[in-house]
Amino acid sequence: MMSQNQGGRSLERRNAKAKAEDESVEAAKRAPRRALDEARLRQQAIGVKLRQMFDRVVNEPVPDEFLAILRRVDDRAQGRDDS
Amino acid sequence: MTAEAVATGGDDPAMEGRFKRELVALIPHLRAFARTLTGDQASADDLAQDALMKAWDARASYQMGTNMKAWTFMILRNQFYSEKRRSWRQTQLDQDAAERTLVAVDDPQAPVALDELRLGLGMLPPEQREALILVGAGGFAYEEAAEICGCAVGTVKSRVSRARRALQGILETGAYDRDGRSAGDAMNSIMAEAEHLGQSR
Q1: ipTM score of the complex?
Q2: Inter-helix orientation angle B153-173/B112-123, to 10°
Q3: Which residues in A lie closer than 8 A to residue B136 (C-beta atoms)?
């Protein structure tokens, strides 16, 4: 059976060891977490740019060829009505 | 009410007018979808015009009040693949598109960051690219994107997340900035890495 003193020392040692382990685990956790945060930020930046790229085309004036397609459709409809 | 009157198009001028107005309002979005899919303006506008004509011709099959944006995007997407199917294997890098977009980078007026992004998008497998565009830029929910692409919601989710990882890899390594051949090699290793990350997650 362990004496009171020995038990106390071994408890201390265990605590110190556990604390050191906790700290190294925390440090190991912090690094990937920081990397994850950075990755998330980079992803957000890509997302913003992607929407920008899309919206820039949405905001361009529509080339006349597009509207001409639907005008031709109108002409065809006129022709149909006249016949 | 007759069957003809229920149909969107047919000979009902009021319905046809409404359909046309809504279609016109969608043109800028169709152009943007086509541009981000192809990465080049001329072929994108050809694609969007084809889709516009197809949508008009198919107006009788569209149900007024349902999501017309999703409906037209589906038409454009199907048009895109029917044109590309001959030369593309679905998961293969489109070397031609990559080379075309690499040439386009010489435009000095375009902001660099967007050019890099366009080049990077051009290197993604098409099904990943479209999923990312629909969800990340087009404003579609995963469910809507799944309907447009004709696949399961989970498939869209995994394509979007793989596309994001791959795109990030491309932009960080500058893989878009090489000549076509080495860009292809770099891309293959990035895709392999993204696959690996996806599996080990």
Answers
A1: 0.72
A2: 130
A3: 47, 50-51
Residue of B nearest to A73 (CA): B56
- pTM for the whole thing? 0.69
Residue of A nearest to B139 (CA): A51
Whether A75 contacts chain B with CB within 8 A: no
Of the candidates B47, B3, B35, the residue with the CA atom closest to the CA atom of residue B130: B35
Q: What whole-number distance in Å separates Cα of residue A77 and Cα of residue B13?
A: 10
Q: Counting one residue from A and one from B, how many pairs have CB atoms under 8 Å apart?
A: 77
Residues B155-171 have pLDDT tens digits of 999 999 999 999 988 88
- Backbone φ and ψ for B177, nearest 5 degrees, come out as -95, 10
Q: Using a CB–CB cutoff of 8 Å, tell me whether A71 touches chain B.
A: no
Which among B16, B48, B118 is the nearest to A53, CB-wise?
B118
DSSP of B11-36, one letter per residue? T-HHHHHHHHHHHHHHHHHHHHHHHH
B140 contact partners, CB below 8 Å, separation of at least 6: B70, B73, B134, B148
CB contact residues (below 8 A), chain A span 16-55, against chain B: 39, 42-43, 46-47, 49-55
pLDDT value at residue B197: 64
Contact A58 B29 (CB under 8 A): yes
pLDDT tens sequence across A2-60: 455 666 677 788 888 778 777 777 777 777 788 888 888 888 888 999 999 999 999 99
Q: Please say whether the beta carbons of B154 and B131 come within 8 A.
A: no
Which H/E stretch holds residue B139?
Answer: none
Q: Tell me the shortest Cα–Cα distance from A29 to chain B, in angstroms.
A: 17
> How many other CB atoms are found less than 10 A from the CB of residue B69?
18
